[in-house]
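WARN retry 2 of 3 for item q-0093 after timeout on previous attempt; input resubmitted unchanged.
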Amino acid sequence: MLLHLFSGLALSLSLTNAFTDTSPFFMFSTSELLTSTPQIISASTLLETLTPQLSTCPSDTYIIVTQPGVHAEDYSDRYSAPHLRRKVLGEDERVRSTMSVMDVLGDVDAEKIVGMLEERCGAVVLKVDAS
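OK item q-0093 returned
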């Protein structure tokens, strides 16, 4: 029995360590952007999925936030990011669609998303460095 419990713990530790080079991705929109994505996806595949949807310029305002080094478990505590949690859970009536991916492999190039929105939608960029 003890060996069975130990091997279960060892398996869960190895699965946790398998995704150390990942970060979560969240997108909220006041427009209907119905996107189904897996919980694990590469950054390049995520961009391939987002580009056609965002290139139609469905919203007036876009907020793109990157937080390198953040992991999905950083958001598991309901007090760590309460406003983000409300949006993910659909508790904000202004948000009409949500896209969340728990583990994105690699870095999402936010500059590519911003560049596409500038080029195709005429978006005006305001950058804020919160560090």
